[in-house]
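Extended Data, panel c. Modelled sequence:
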Amino acid sequence: MKITKIVSASLALMLGWGGTAFAQDEVDALRYTRYGLTGSARIQGIGGAQTALGADVSTMASNPAGLGMFRRSEFSITPGLGFSTSTGRVGGISTNDERNNVAVPHIGFVFADRQSDENSDWRGATFGISFSRLNNFNNRTSYRNTAGGQDPTIVEYFTELANLRGRTQTDLDNEFNNGYTSMEGLAYGTFLFDFDEDGFAIPTDRIGNVNQSEEIIRRGSQNQIDIAGGTSYRDKMYLGASLGVITSDFRQERIFRETEEDASTDFTSLELRDEYRTRGTGVNLKLGIIVRPSDVIRLGASIQTPTLYNFNETYQRSMYSQFLPGENYSAVELPGEFSYKLTTPFRASGGVAFFIQKYGFIAADIEYVDYANARFSESDDFGGNSTYFNSVNDRISGTYQSALNFRLGAEARYEVFRFRAGYAITGDPYRNADFDGKINTFTLGTGIRLNRYYADVAFTSSTANSLYSPYNFNDPSVFVPVVDIEDKLNTVMLTFGYNF
């Protein structure tokens, strides 16, 4: 299959086998910039549309001006259960993987100090702290494919790496004797290619069909702690600000295998394992305003500064091969660790909420993010490899574009009961791609409100599609397997709240 415009940054799946120690690329930039739905079960039940709504603990992570609407202090906690399903399709073969995850995606405290004098222009101050899960990285993807006897496979890819980088038998022998530091070194050490008399790398002989399979296992999450304050001016205008501290922990293990059953060649199988873990901390600032010109309508807006991250990454790769008659080889790369910085784009949101007397409301949000503005940079101890980050940042600019995220939701009220529904579209971040990069999310929810207590439950269902190739050749016309991946995430969450 010819691959033309398949974007390597296919929803955080593509971290190529490129042999360089530096794993940062446009995929990482998108992973830490593109968020899922956040907040309490009430907010997620209405599709996350809360920029103009206010008076919910979740408002600290979206528009802190909503804190100014609180008249009482409040505490809430939201446990949740996530069910992720990934389907990989290639060559007419479909493979399904499922993974479940239990978490607490939101906790919040609000401390309201309402002025007793209602004649005062400023009606007191409200402070809060909240914990929100921005991204759930837990997912497992797998696929199976059969490459014909004439089709190049990952062995030819390793061979091309060695030739393009000008590797010689002498320097690869040096890796063999002193420790592996490259992907082509691992392949050479497991006898997947050799050199001809002219010094060019040539792949090991394979004649029959080659069965390919891969598992990609991801774990971790991205979470934000907000420390916020808000106030009210005559209960007509609400102002707020919050300091956000984001922590991220992402782990990925990839296991790629090839097997050949033709007895006329010595090659039997190979296995490549790539494991790495990235942990980081970032800081941002949010400012927000909500205006209530009447009891029927509220208008809201918020901005978030770029998030400044510091990341630390550890990694290791290994290769295993088998040949007839029963020969086994292994090579393990020297473990690596390094640090770097990432600046994510500025974000801006606007929203409107319409209230239908005591019967409920309809809310809508729009958010702007320019994914092309994400930038990597060196940490203080990185070692000065600015050329590498320049090329990565150029790829970010060329791969991504600005996008609009839309959220729409409604709540109906009957006595103490609440009924909710919502829909959210996370806009396509890709400039040119052979797939629609939007993420569609449908939500439902219900709840009950008492004088001092409340409980809400919500169900969200998100679907995203991407294309993925485990390796690519320098010549884009060369056949590579292309996997059509559909990821689904269903989440059930329950919020318990107490007013005091």
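The first helix runs from residue 26 to 31. This feature is highlighted in the accompanying rendering.
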